[in-house]
Amino acid sequence: MNTTDLIKRTIQFVKEKLEDAEGGHDWFHIERVHKNALLIAKNTDCDLTVVELGALLHDIADSKFHNGDETIGPKTARLFLEGENVSEDVIAHVVYIIENISYKGGNFEKKFSSIELDIVQDADRLDAIGAIGVARAFNYGGFKNRALYNPEIEPVTNMTKEEYKKNNAPTINHFYEKLLLLKDKMNTETGKEIAAERHRFMELFLSQFYAEWEGVK
Ligand code: ADP
Ligand code: NI
């Protein structure tokens, strides 16, 4: 099968799989990550098929919604690609990307590295920052029934999931714990450039947010 057909069929498969996904991880997230990945790949020497498949399949089954089972995503992707007669080296690479893409806090060690993983990871991170990042964060916070902000709770940068629950931390905390840190974790030059702009937008958003909170603007 030619690559264009494979990508079309992958898009179809992912759309169907994510039909009931929540707002932060729906098909449109995948579509944005796919676009970001193509944009970064344009300036980079890489295997475009692996990049596209990695971007399209990276959230095919999020462990958060499968009782923490981190093997479901890679397994689902592998089964699909085997059914499409994709070569084993491409399948193995895409599966590695899915296994290694996630931001798991500071002490997560990448077991694998490739330019294709770097690109897909940057593409996914770009969708967590900027205006879309702000929207996704508050959408997630709403899903968890969290407050927007609480001036009595000092934002901290290293809050664990358990502490979020225990402290009932507001969504604003997520900026300090993750979103504002992402620009310094970008892998590619293009990713870094786009992240810098989106970072500035988040800083602007936060200063406006605090000003409005105080009623001064
Ligand atoms: P990814 O799928 O990009 O690895 P996650 O699954 O951790 O990221 O998060 C999906 C979206 O939900 C992201 O935009 C992320 O910023 C947001 N999110 C994750 N955890 C929180 C949180 N505690 N508060 C607010 N937003 C969150
Ligand atoms: Ni994602």
Automatic annotation (TrEMBL):
Transmembrane segments: none annotated. Residues 26-129 form the HD domain. Signal peptide: none annotated. Pfam families: HD. PANTHER family: HD_PDEASE DOMAIN-CONTAINING PROTEIN, SUPERFAMILY HYDROLASE, PUTATIVE (AFU_ORTHOLOGUE AFUA_1G03035)-RELATED. This is HD domain-containing protein. It comes from Flavobacterium circumlabens. The lineage of its organism: Bacteria, Pseudomonadati, Bacteroidota, Flavobacteriia, Flavobacteriales.
